[in-house]
Specification:
By secondary structure, the chain is an all-alpha fold. It is built from three helices and no strands.
């Protein structure tokens, strides 16, 4: 659990979010079906 917290804080600083909740919202989105669909579309776009 501490590793996840450190990782989220690192991502928060990298993305320049003022709130860790914003970073958590994006993380939750990436773990959802929408995140999977976006990932597939992104891969299609790159290839």
């Amino acid at each position: 659990m501490n590793t996840i917290t450190v990782l989220l804080n690192t991502v928060q600083r990298w993305m320049r979010h003022s709130s860790v909740q914003t970073t958590q919202n994006y993380a939750d989105l990436l773990n959802s079906d929408v995140g999977e669909q976006v990932g597939k579309a992104f891969i299609q776009f790159i290839l």
